[in-house]
Design brief:
Elements lengths: L22 H14 L8 E2 L1 H8 L3 H13 L3 E4 L3 E4 L4 H22 L5 H20 L2 H18 L3 H15 L2 H8 L2 H16 L3 H21 L2 H16 L1
């Protein structure tokens, strides 16, 4: 049975009371943050009555907030059964990777000509951090550094619309960081691929860096396409066991 929770908190007093202005927007922002931070994981049921009581608002703003979250692909609204935090299927996850590839290739092409000493130094620091975390087997820290590497190119692209679309996509994918690392495989290979991208960027070769970025993002795509749903679940379970050891 899916977990049922409106908003989880260590203390009841930690749940913020929403003001009377823009209640729907505030409810949407709060629930979105809870979902993207995985405090409300995929499969969690979102009952209007429970949410209304915990957030101190009527059901109308809650219903509107859930509708907006559904439009963003974060929630599935089921008629007469309430809403549930959306779970990405393998097919949807693959599609997300394909869109991510297109966005990041564009980001690299735009960012490389704009990279100065500070930008290159930032990317070098992040890459070195990735290498250190991979060598130490610190997968969570590796994932954070890996994400920062990619986000840095997007940020340095200077394209605000690209940044907006990317943030929304990564917000949906980030909840599945364990799956991403399972599909990524050898972390040392990943570090080598990042170093190659950075080397091309340092040389000012935007096209080469973009091609390398595309090849890098296609690695988990190819593995995802080769695995059945059961194989993916087993791989994720095995990953969780290793991390908890």
């Amino acid at each position: 049975m899916a977990p049922e929770a409106a908003v989880q908190s260590d203390k009841n007093n930690d749940v913020p009371r929403l003001e009377n202005l823009t209640l729907s927007q505030r409810a949407h922002t709060f629930l979105r943050d809870e979902i993207l931070s995985n405090r409300l994981p995929p499969g969690t049921e979102l009952q209007e009555v429970a949410l209304s009581q915990q957030l101190g608002v009527s059901r109308g703003p809650i219903r509107e907030a859930l509708g907006r979250l559904a439009a963003e692909g974060l929630v599935t609204v089921r008629p007469r059964r309430g809403a549930v935090v959306h779970s990405l299927s393998s097919g949807e996850f693959l599609e997300a990777y394909q869109v991510r590839e297109a966005l990041e290739v564009l980001a690299v092409r735009l960012a490389v000509p704009r990279l100065g000493p500070e930008g290159l130094a930032e990317l070098q620091t992040v890459t070195d951090t990735m290498a250190a975390q991979a060598a130490s087997g610190h997968v969570t820290e590796f994932f954070e550094a890996n994400s920062l590497f990619h986000e840095t190119f997007v940020q340095l692209s200077g394209n605000e619309k690209l940044q907006e679309v990317y943030r929304r996509l990564i917000g949906q994918m980030r909840r599945y960081w364990r799956r991403s690392l399972v599909l990524r495989g050898d972390l040392r290979r990943s570090v080598s691929e990042h170093r190659a991208i950075l080397r091309a960027a340092r040389e000012g070769d935007a096209e080469k860096a973009a091609v390398l970025m595309a090849e890098h993002i296609r690695v988990p795509q190819a593995r995802l396409q080769s695995m059945t749903a059961d194989e993916l679940l087993e791989a994720e379970a095995s990953f969780d066991r290793k991390v908890s050891e």
